[in-house]
Structure prediction request, 925 residues.
Amino acid sequence: MAIQKPSHTFTKIHLKALRTNIFHILFTLSFTVLINTFSMAQDLPGKSTEIKPKLEDDTIQNDSLNLNAADFEKMELSERNQDSTLQDSVKPKRETLTGPIKYKATDYTRFNMKEQKLYLYNEAEVLYEDMQITAGIIVIDYNKKEVYAGRIKDSLGNYTQKPVFKQGDNVAEPDSIRFNYETEKALVFNTNTEQGGMKIYAPITKKENDSTIFLYKGRFTTSENIEDPEYYFQSNRIKMVPKKKIVVGFTDMYIYDVPTPILLPFGFFPLTEKHTSGVIIPTPGEDSNRGYFLQNGGYYFAISDYVDLAVLGDYYTNGSYGLRMESNYSKRYRYSGNAGFRYESLIQEERGFPNYAKTSIYNIRWTHSQDAKASPNSRFTASVNMGSSRYYQQSINQVNSPSFLNNTLASSVSYSKTFVGEPQVNLSLTATHSQNTQTESINMTLPTLQASVSRIFPFEPKTGTKKGIIQNINFQYNVRGENRIQTTDSLFFQKEMWDDARMGLRHSIPLTTNFKVLKYLSLSAGTNYDETWVFETYRRSYDNEEQEVITTKENGFASYRTYNFNSSLGTTIYGMFPFEKQGEDRKIKAIRHVMRPSVSYNINPGFEQYYDTYTVISADGLTSEEVEYSRFQGTLYGAPNQNYSSSMGFSLSNNIEMKVRDKDSTATEAKKIKLLDNLNFSTGYNFSADSLNWSAVRMTGSTKIFDQKMAINFGATLDPYALDNNNRKINTFNIDNGGSLFRLTSANLTTSYTLSNSTFNGGQSDESKEETLRSGGRNDDMFGRSQTYYDEGFYDEEEDGTDEEEETPNDLYTHKIPWNLRLAYAVNYSNSRRENEISSHSLMFSGDIELTKRWTVGASSGYDFKNQGFTYTQLRFERDLLSWRMSFNWIPFSTRSSWNFFIGIKSNMLKDIKYDKRKQPDQRL
Prediction:
């Protein structure tokens, strides 16, 4: 038996490594081998025969450890200097490993030379490029070029430290793993991994390369609990391409380990971190008038990272159909928005029946917002909601269900630009649209131009503040131009809608000043010059034969100029009413009352020069009458004042607060409570009127109570004049006619209140609320929720997996019941002509209550006290089934009576796996 010296042994290994194509791998382990060698040398004899190393073919070529490139070059240069016979003309092969390997372990790291294996035990970790393996034990076999990772047993005999295999963004947690670092193939046993929100388990997984993985008897689910999922899909053969797709063979669906009749011969599931195009599965149903239908099915186009497009359609077996196109776009720090077009062709009954009818309705929506940082001096915004007046009332798509109560459609598209300088110039261009869905009347401005120059103080001092009448004199310039169109729904976008378009411009130059009077009074005075341009006028004449007034339109430029004078005097009065004396500590400290009285005076001259006359002759030709008119009547801004007007206005605003002792003993100041946010009174007196000089007194006010949670707004109109027997106002004070000082002609009261427990996070989802607001609806649930089942979220905070533990309210209760309640009350009183009646009186409410952690019920309804009936009512029942969601919405009565039952998977990837059953409303009149 030959015994080698440690140095010879080390030299042999060193020289053999130099003769290989990847000898730098073993150089990485040189320190480990050196320690092992010297440890064995303690058992060897102290002297032995020197054995020279033989030059043999390397039997452990392509080993798996290396150092960095710099160390490799130094080592190779040193060896070439030692071995002068090394004349290898064959170029070395490309190394298997292209980067350094780092490894560590807690208990020990041992290299077995005979087996050519490196053992890492307890909290072992190996790092190589983008690959990381952590496990209880890791063995690197350099002969087979494999890495093995597995579990270890603890002191109780239980397996711990399961391997975790990471490569890029892919993570796998198997029981054990075998990985060949040369071919990059791997065998993984009992692995758990996640791809694009899909959790996958398989007893045996074969990794072919970075792009292809095969699974045997695998199961995949979106459940949070992969060990005991509430549902999963199982397939014997699964092919997975990370970040791209999952392709499965024959697949069966299991619910709590129980197989279901839901079988798929094959399946395809896209995996991507980006938006991808794909089919949108429609929702089936049945309509009593239109037969069976498919709604909201189509295709989603992921056009780019900045814009997308969804094309959806509805089809009914009686021939009705619908089309929807929705697009969202966004560019960070620049702008964002969405656009949509909806069209429905609806057929009622069958052709040949008396109730047969065919209608077409459409709707156009567009919202655009610009980031404030994109352009500080210019801004473009858009909010468009226009189309058929009866669109929301006649639409049978469930998405539009809660918007049928909308009475108006409004749109606005505007661009504004500010030219910074002294003075500053502001320019805006706006197109507006207002549509009454009941009368089907439409008012549009295409467009409205507004420009203004900021205030100029020609006499202001170069330094210091402005004082006195002269220094405070200022003026500015404003111009407003409009192209106003009034039309109806039937003529919308027709040539006739432009026939009655009215255009005009108004220039305005206000000149004002202000100063102090008697130290405490603030006086402002000014005049305003207006010049109006129009492009059509109307001449009037009387046709004696037809006995009617003939109006003739004259196209061409025309203008008129007006001016007026105004002044106002006001001040602020503060009153403090203390309730405690020195040394006392009462709960109510003081009441603070602030009053702001104001008196204004206005003079509007008459401009009779812009008025003409025409003669009206009676039918018998015996009498005639001169009628005055202005050719500017009927133009965009109307005619100027014909009669001189001189009037004075009076107003008084009040604010009342109370100071109370703060419940917080550490507070150093009293707490302020608002009793009345504002209480305003206003009236006026017309000096130039021949009768009824006084205007009615208008009173308005608002306050908040119950810790600022209940908002109350109220108002009333008080008329000082009496009525005659025909209920017409006469020039006699009501008190002189045997009545009170004022006659209450109208009053109103509105209040809203929201109740909830402090931890309740319920309410409609963001998608549902956004859909309602885009359609012009309310931002609460008073008229129900939008039933966007195809993309609606459900308990978004739980979808993220953050199932937070709730605190127990007290020792008597073991469960907290979140709830909320929103109330809106309104009452209006009318008595202008002795009606003495409540014109409207209603209470609306909407609320939700979470009976258990995953059971929620809610309702939106109201009661009309005047007509004694319930308003639009919607009942909601929702159940969170962990990975699934279930909901039932019911409108029990009214012409919109309907219900909808839905159950489906919450994950966006599998949201098309659902069951949706609904009863459409019967809209026959």
In short: The radius of gyration is 42 Å. DSSP finds eight helices and 52 strands in the chain.
